[in-house]
Amino acid sequence: MTEGTLQNQHPGLHGFALWRNPILWKNFKSRLRAQALFQCLLVFITSAFLTLIIYTGMDTFDANSVESARAGIIPLLIVQAVILMLAGTGRITSGVIHERVTGTLEYTRLTPMSPMDKVLGYLFGLPVREYILFAITVPFMAFLLIKGQIPVNVTAQVYLVFFSSVLLYHLIGLVFGLVLKEWRMSVLLTQGVVILINLVLPLFSNLGFPFLQYLTIRPVVSANIMPYLPQSSAFRSAIPEAFFSGDVAFFEWSISTTSFSLLLQGILIFTLGLMVYRKWESAFNHSLSKTYALCLFVGLQIFCIGTLWPNLVGNDSSSYAQGLLPSDFSPDDLAFILPIMFSIFSLVCVFWLLYVITPTHDEYRSGLIRDRKLRNLHLPGLPLLDDKSSGLLSTVCLALLTAAFIGFVQITLIASSGDAGFLTASVVYMTDYWKLPMASVLIIVYFYVALEYLELQKLAILILCLWIVPILLGVVAVVTFDVEQNWAYIISTSPIPLLIYSGSAVTMTEGAADAAEYILINRAFWFGTSFISLTTALLAYKLQQLQTRARAHGSDR
Amino acid sequence: MNSISSQIATKDLRLDYGELTAVNNVNLHIPAGEIYGLVGPNGAGKTSLLKMLANLITPTYGELWIAGIDLSEQPRSAYQLMGYMPDLSPVAPELKVWEFLEYFAASYGIPRDKRLTRVNECLDAVDMTEHRDVYGKALSRGMTQKVVLAKTLIPSPKILLLDEPASGMDPLARINLKNLLLELSGQGVTTIISSHILTELEDMCTSIGVMDRGKLLRSGELRYILDEYAVRILAMEAIDGLDTAERLLLARPDVSVVMKTGKGLTLEFSGDEEDEAALLRELIIAGVKVTSFHRKGTRMEDTLINLVSRNKNSENSAVPATGIDQTESLL
């Protein structure tokens, strides 16, 4: 054997030079063999058939070649979306899991390629066959776009968002592949998530989260392509004319659908890319740093409030957040539903971020060792926001930010009551407006302390026992024993009902403050708050004991 | 500093899986060119130790240096020097053998024009040249091991971490592996090899470490450890009193097996040299007319058993009053 072929080389400096990426080339070899020919032929035949049948068919009956070509655009776009968004995403997840099962992922981890090489290699390498299949459809789409006289800037906008969505879904697939274990199930799950994003998330517009629909290409297609479709097109009649406007109301601004979609998707692509990069950098890293998690939370809150803004200030209360209200709802009902929905969204974000950034017991202990090592070298100790530092500081920041954003939503609504806005004067019971932010803070601290002390598996048991069972018990109590009053107390020990109680109190009219219902809700709120506070205090005490023991033990070593 | 002069060094290395301590305060100092055999029963912590050295698992405590590089600080620099071959390692089934190896050649930054030469060299080293166009999925267990070994050799690593590399290999391939490791050792490559096939380690290792229940019981040059802990095969001949000798030997705790061989006896003896002399004296005092008494050899398997059983005995007899193990797992 010759000696030291490698010793003085500098690998891993391919960066964005994708054509030199070893992972990409490996996938070129393994995924573009003769077996791919069948799929290529299938896609070619399908695209050709679709194009010809729609174009020539309509051309024959309507004798208008421009409209005939336009009618074929959406079906072919769906084919392209299925290839890249569904098949490509599934391929990425299954490919990563396959590499893990066959050991290649572990081997690759130990090569000196840079994390960026690994991210880009897997992101563009695993779905390489799907990109080729997509390329086969391009001439047909180009034919339809040219014949249909669709302006270049319209095409460019649609495909910008199309590829941005593809990248987003592929990154989701990559994250799932690195996290999930079971092969076939993970493919179905990832493809399910893509379908969910495209078909279910847009429905959340009706629940107060209109910005979620911009994770898909639907708004951009509606705004840019739909106006060009023939009046008789089934696709055109399926979308309300309101969607053709092409602008998104964001605070007081009006942003084009394309820009808004690219902005939102860009933030998420960057976040997911960062998660994968950090995992490739070191398998022991958290997916997100604590600092980035805080910034991301602020970004998501601003996006959510920005798109809720027309509802909050009453400029356009008919557009969103109607899904939970009866058809004959009054604008005042929004004052009840919006803050609660916003709080639930905020808490879901916080729970996810806390799950990502809170250290496990082993990580915390390892952080203590590293802290001591740094101090022994006369360097500053472990930063407070390091992956292995306790999650307390970031939790406090997240809780305070949540309270501030919820408070902002409420204050904005209060400002819209009376003569100044669209709500009636008496709808907001001013003295109770602090309850919702306070309950949110309490629930966040409760979740964090339980997570850091119990870790994930035991936390799941706690959530089942103390979050879900009280709700079920309350329902059983009402149905079986007809205990009309006491069920409120049982249910209030679960955080989500507590949140609803705290929100309900805000929207009581002043005149109803003495009513039995208000008194019951108020008492249940305080009962639930006391129970959760005591549970949190107990868990915090146990966590503090545990960490003290770890510190004392660590200093002996 | 030892950690700098050694190719592989660890300090107070420990790995906990919840309540279980898989590796317990291991200190290693392995110089360049050494072939270090890591032996121990199943669950001793060998694979966990190798995975920590490969930076696939982060230690709970302790520090690791590879060629003087702190693994926790500069892992990528260390990757360039290391070749790790895991136990029961598969090969990408969808790739041909040469494609699999070329991928790693590219990953380690070997220039395009030199990759195939390097791939062929490594295939040749493990005697797999004729199978270069076979798909990974068509390889037998032994051939897979050979291909993974070839992959490990691709970057010409200065440090080899081999976890049970010979499992599934035929005898010829094992001899090949031994010769290859000896050749690499001559070039200054440091190897840690864990194996259950101890006789093979005996032939190639310059030093060994014996692990049991996460602890490194003994570590050092092979011949010293064999001398100190080996079960010796002793042979004696006598013209009279063989029955008395057999009875006397069987009564001793340091004699495990006694076999009659014509005019003499062969026995397995776990005592040291002093005990050996005392045994001979005892036989003569008992009236056995000994004409020959000599050592026939040592067995590495028995050395391992001897060390592990001594460890178990000492742990069982230790008073757990301080409860160190229990308090060590605090979180």
Considering the chains and any ligands shown, give keywords for the structure:
heterodimer, A: 557 residues, mainly alpha, two-stranded antiparallel ribbon, 2 strands, 70% helix, globular, disordered N terminus, B: 331 residues, alpha/beta, 6-stranded mixed sheet, 4-stranded antiparallel sheet, 14 strands, 40% helix, elongated, disordered C terminus
Q: Could you walk me through the main structural features you see in this protein, from its secondary elements to its overall organization?
A:
- The complex is a heterodimer of chains A (557) and B (331).
- With 557 residues, chain A is mostly helical.
- Chain A has helices at 22-31, 36-62, 65-71, 73-101, 104-109, 115-125, 128-147, 152-179, 183-200, 218-224, 234-238, 257-281, 290-313, 331-357, 361-376, 392-415, 435-481, 486-492, 495-506, 516-556, and strands at 247-250, 253-256.
- In chain A, strands 1-2 form a two-stranded antiparallel ribbon.
- In chain B, the strands form three sheets. Chain B has a six-stranded mixed beta sheet, with helices on both faces. In chain B, strands 2-1-4-5 form a four-stranded antiparallel beta sheet. In chain B, strands 12-13-11-14 form a four-stranded antiparallel beta sheet.
- Chain B is of the alpha/beta class and 331 residues long.
- In chain B, a hairpin with a 2-residue loop joins strand 1 and strand 2.
- Chain B has helices spanning 2-5, 46-53, 75-79, 97-107, 112-125, 141-153, 171-186, 198-204, 222-229, 242-250, 273-285, 300-317, 324-328, and strands at 8-17, 20-30, 35-39, 61-66, 69-70, 82-85, 159-163, 190-194, 207-212, 215-221, 231-240, 255-261, 264-269, 289-299.
- The chains are: A mainly alpha (557), B alpha/beta (331).
- The interface between A and B is large, with 49 and 55 residues.
